[in-house]
Design goal:
This protein is an alpha/beta fold. It has helices spanning 23-36, 50-60, 79-93, 112-124, 138-147, 166-174, 194-203, 207-216, 229-236, 245-252, and strands at residues 3-6, 9-12, 16-17, 40-42, 67-72, 98-103, 128-134, 152-158, 178-182, 221-222. The protein has a single domain (3-188, 215-227), classed as Alpha-Beta Barrel (TIM Barrel), CATH 3.20.20. Helices cover 40% and strands 17% of the residues. Helix 6 links the parallel strand 8 (152-158) and strand 9 (178-182). Helix 1 (23-36) runs parallel beside helix 2 and helix 3 crosses helix 4. The longest helix is centred in the N-terminal third of the chain and has 15 residues, at 79-93. It is globular and about 55 Å long. The protein starts with a strand and ends in a 19-residue tail after the last helix.
Length: 271
């Protein structure tokens, strides 16, 4: 399994996203993914499935080899609430330590310095191994790295061939942070795209695999969500081939500033 390293922390380049997965299906899929070779499982307090994710991790018998990420709810970013919620996540996940703890969405009502101070204390107390952010803009990244007493290892963002994220990715690289792409297949939008399908035929791969490989070949971590066991192996298979420079350029040409799929009322003003 390939890794992306940021600030002496290794993040497996292919993980399983668990947004919208629930109940026994969620636990079963997490367990199956780990048995197939996944070493990176992503959840969040907002997903309301940390208990099931924890069940799947433990059922695999491979907890020691798996990196588990969870994300703090944007309404729990005040220091006292953050500490309470992180301890709650540990109980639900049945973990002694969270491998990577992220701020899920920025909350302008809570000073970033206060939130990151609390995040740093979670790391110093041994409740999480590393900390990072999600859905942060260029300006927020600059502020976060300035006020955080602990290194921020990643920014988790929506990223796929249809969304131009050059500005925020450049900011992440400059800060030495890994980029983690959620919705990396554009929530199924890769399937049926003429460019991705055409390139896939050349390599004997699906459009989704081409989409994922475009990301991983850039050194971007991907966390595709699937509810189907057969897709787990397919998503891992993106690492079994390489795209040419010309193919990468053609896929990059699909990107647009307005190609965002995830649109929520509490989002920051995007770059």
């Amino acid at each position: 399994m390939n890794f992306v390293e940021a600030k002496d922390f290794k993040i497996p380049i292919v993980g399983l996203g668990t947004w919208s997965l629930r109940g026994r299906d969620c636990a079963r899929l997490v367990e199956q993914a780990i048995r197939l070779g996944y070493r990176h499982i992503d959840t969040a307090q907002m997903y309301e499935n940390e208990t099931e994710v924890g069940e799947g991790v433990h059922a695999s018998g491979l907890r020691a080899k798996v990196m588990v990420t969870t994300k703090v709810h944007p309404e729990s970013l005040a220091p006292h609430e953050l500490e309470r919620s992180v301890k709650g996540s540990l109980v639900k996940l049945r973990l002694d330590v969270i491998d990577l703890l992220l701020i899920h969405w920025p909350n302008p009502k809570v000073p970033l310095a206060e939130t990151l101070g609390a995040m740093a204390r979670m790391k110093q107390a041994g409740l999480t191994r590393q900390i990072g952010v999600s859905n942060f803009t260029v300006a927020l990244l600059a502020e976060a790295n300035k006020v955080s007493s602990e290194p921020l290892v990643c920014n988790q963002i929506e990223y796929h061939p249809f969304l131009d994220q050059d500005k925020v990715i450049a900011a992440c690289r400059k800060a030495g942070m890994a980029v983690v792409a959620y919705s990396p297949i554009a929530r199924g939008g890769a399937k049926g795209d003429k460019v991705l399908e055409k390139i896939g035929k050349v390599h004997g791969k699906s459009a989704a695999q081409v989409c994922l490989r475009w990301l991983t070949q850039q050194g971007v971590v991907v966390i595709p969500r699937t509810s189907r066991v057969e897709r787990l192996e397919e998503n891992l298979g993106n690492l079994s081939f390489d795209l040419s420079d010309a193919e990468i350029k053609e896929i990059t040409g699909l990107g647009r500033r307005d190609g965002r799929i995830v649109k929520v009322a509490w989002a920051p003003t995007w770059d």
